[in-house]
Design brief:
Blueprint lengths: L4 H8 L2 E4 L5 E4 L5 E2 L2 H71 L13 H11 L10 E8 L2 E5 L16 E11 L7 E2 L4 E2 L5 E11 L1
Antiparallel strand pairs: 1-2, 2-3, 4-5, 4-6, 6-9, 7-8
């Protein structure tokens, strides 16, 4: 018995079909289908690309989390110092205004209608204390009132400050008001006092002086 090879090929009835995805499917007479190897390779490549993208996203998210953890203490420290420096500048301006108000009050005591008596150092101290009432740690306030009358210096209050020299001592009485205040910051952390290391603003002494002339 001789087998015709052409008949065997025709019996298999191999057909080419194209599915909805555009891939070619081979179907023989038995109804079995086969997909070309290219389609499986494309699916594997797509799966690998998706896995790589997910891995890259995970690495990026982890890196961002580490960077945020490193920057968070610095940002927190910056906010604390901004608040502390704001309070320091407010105290500086308030002390300066208090010293100026005390000097003006003392110099204008005798320049009023009715020849009012000159203000006493106690009255000047009370005026300055009332002027800085908005500050914390008011117990650290020290007010020193001095006069220079033709070389004769008289001072009242704590401290060691003395009034400057008047270029015309025979005509005027020089009056000076020195105000000293210790500013304590709102927040204090991470300070090593023994080594002089301060990551936040330490307690600072503020000193302001106002000088005026009277006749």
């Amino acid at each position: 018995m001789v087998i015709d090879p052409h008949r065997s090929v025709s019996a298999s009835r191999v057909r080419r079909q194209e599915d909805t995805a555009g891939a070619i499917t081979l179907e023989d007479s038995t109804g079995m289908k086969a997909t070309p190897a290219g389609r499986g390779f494309a699916a594997s490549a797509a799966k690998g690309t998706s896995t790589a993208a997910v891995s890259m996203h995970a690495r990026t998210a982890g890196q961002s989390l580490v960077e945020f953890a490193l920057l968070l203490p610095l940002i927190f420290l910056l906010i604390l110092n901004v608040v502390n420096f704001g309070g320091f500048f407010f105290a500086w301006i308030t002390i300066s205004n208090g010293a100026r108000a005390g000097a003006q009050y003392m110099s204008m005591g005798t320049a009023t209608v009715g020849d009012a008596p000159a203000a006493t150092p106690a009255q000047v101290t009370t005026l300055v204390a009332n002027d800085i009432s908005s500050l914390l740690n008011r117990a650290s306030l020290v007010v020193r009132v001095c006069t220079n009358n033709n070389g004769t210096i008289a001072c009242t209050g704590g401290g060691t400050q003395t009034p400057p020299t008047d270029p015309e001592p025979a005509y005027y009485i020089l009056t000076s008001v020195d105000v000293t205040y210790t500013y304590v910051p709102f927040f204090s952390a991470w300070n090593i006092n023994g080594l002089g290391i301060h990551l936040t603003l330490p307690a600072t002494t503020i000193h302001q002086r106002a000088v005026m002339r009277t006749q």
